Amino acid sequence: MYKIALLPGDGIGPEIVPQAVRVLQAVGEKYNREFQFETALIGGAAYDATGHPLPEETLDVCRNADAIILGAVGGPKWDNLEPHLRPERGALLPLRKKLGLYANLRPAVVNPALADASTLKADIVSGLDVMIIRELTGGLYFGEKRREDLPGGGQKVVETLEYTTAEIERVVRLGFEMARKRNKKLSSVDKANVLESSRLWREIVERLAEEYPDVELNHILVDNCAMQLVRNPKQFDVMVTENMFGDILTDLASQLTGSIGMLPSASLGGEVALYEPIHGSAPDIAGKNLANPIATILSAAMMLRISFGLETEAAAIEQAVDRVLQQGYRTGDIMQPGKIKVGTVEMTEEIIKALE
Ligand code: NAD
Ligand code: IPM
Ligand code: MN
C-alpha cells in the first residue's frame, strides 16, 4: 500500500490533481496496487479556510505520506497579502525547504505526435529529450530580503543570493549521476562572468568533474543558454543550474514540447518526494475544464518510477499518454488543425481507456 498526499491548491490545481488520481486508480486496478490518498489544504485555499497558506496539519499529512502530488498555488485573489501569507512565499517555498527537496527534475521531452505543436519548427524540436535539474532550496528565493525607507524618500531593497559549497555540491553531483545514466553530457548553466555565486558553482563543477571522466561537461552562461535552447535544443542532454535560472529556463523549455501543460517534475532530496507540473494555477483558464492534465498525470508516473520503483506502471501511463496523443486528442493548449479537441476530464478518460 502506497500513501499519497494530495495538495490540489488553487486555480486549475483542484481540476488537474483529481485527474492524476483517476489515472492512478486505474493503474492500481490493472496492476493490483493499492494507493491510499489523503488530501490537504495549501496556498490560497488553505489561507481562506484557516488563515495560513501552509497549515501545520498539511505538513503532517506530507511527512506521513510516501509521496506528494501538488497541483499549483497562487492567484490574483492572494497576490497582495503580506509575504508570509502569500501562497508562493508562505506555502510553496517553505514546503520545499522544510521537506529538504533541493533537486527539481524537469524533463522536457517532445512527444512524437506533438513535434509540430511547438511554436518552433518541427525539425528543431522533434526527438528532443532534455533533463533540466533545477536547484530548489537556495539562491535568491531563500536569501535575506529586506526593504528600507531612504531618508530622501524612496526605498532600498536588498535581495541576497546565497549558496554554500554543500548545497551546490549535492545538486551538481546529481547532475553528473543523471548524465552518466543518460547520454553522458552535462551542461552546467551559470553566470560566472558576473556572479560570485556562479564562480563558486563553477569551481565545484570542475572539481566534481574529475570523478566523472566519462561525462562530457560544458559550462554555459545562462543568457547564451536561453538562446541555445531556442536555436538548437537537441545539443543538450542533462542541464544543472541554480534555482532562479532553472525556473526561467524550464518554462522556456516547456514550450519546445508544445505547451507548459506537458511538463512534469519531481522534487527530491528529502525523505518524501513531491511531484508537480511545472506550470502554475493558470487563473485565466481555471474552472472551465480547459486545463491540460498531462503534466500532472506524467508527474504521477514519475512518482511511481522514482518513489515507488513501479517501472511497469509508470511506463504504462506514459504509453497511454503517447497513444491518446497519437489518436489525435488535444486540449486547447496543444490543439492543432484536424485534431479532436477535448477538455481536462475527457482527456483523462481517453488516457484511462488507453491504459486498458
Ligand atoms: P501559469 O503557469 O499559471 O500560466 C501561464 C500560461 O500558461 C497561462 O496562459 C495558462 O493558462 C497556461 N497554462 C498553464 N498551465 C496550463 C495547463 N495545464 N493547460 C493549459 N494551459 C496552461 O503562470 P502564471 O500565469 O505566471 O502564474 C499564475 C499563478 O500561478 C501565479 O499566482 C503564480 O505565482 C502561480 N504559480 C504557481 C506555481 C506552482 O504552484 N508550482 C508555478 C508557477 C506559477
Ligand atoms: C515553479 C513556480 C514557483 C517557483 C513559484 C510559484 C514560487 O514558478 O514551481 O516553477 O518559482 O519555483
Ligand atoms: Mn516557475
Automatic annotation (TrEMBL):
Reactions it catalyzes: (2R,3S)-3-isopropylmalate + NAD(+) = 4-methyl-2-oxopentanoate + CO2 + NADH
Cofactor annotation comment: Binds 1 Mg(2+) or Mn(2+) ion per subunit.
GO CC terms: cytosol
UniProt entry keywords in alphabetical sequence: Amino-acid biosynthesis, Branched-chain amino acid biosynthesis, Cytoplasm, Leucine biosynthesis, Magnesium, Manganese, Metal-binding, NAD, Oxidoreductase
Required cofactor(s): Mn(2+); Mg(2+)
Annotated site (Important for catalysis): 141, 191
Keyword Magnesium on entry: yes
EC id: 1.1.1.85
Keyword NAD annotated: yes
Subcellular compartments: Cytoplasm
Entry-linked InterPro entries: IsoCit/isopropylmalate_DH_CS, IsoPropMal-DH-like_dom, Isopropylmalate_DH
GO molecular function, one term: magnesium ion binding
Pfam family, one: Iso_dh
Pathway: Amino-acid biosynthesis; L-leucine biosynthesis; L-leucine from 3-methyl-2-oxobutanoate: step 3/4
Binding positions (substrate): 96, 106, 134, 223
Binding-site residues for Mg(2+), renumbered to this chain: 223, 247, 251
Gene Ontology biological process terms from the UniProt entry: L-leucine biosynthetic process
Occurrences of domain Isopropylmalate dehydrogenase-like (ranges): 3-351
Family membership noted in the UniProt record: Belongs to the isocitrate and isopropylmalate dehydrogenases family. LeuB type 1 subfamily.
Xref: NCBIfam families: leuB
Subunit note: Homodimer.
Name of this protein: 3-isopropylmalate dehydrogenase
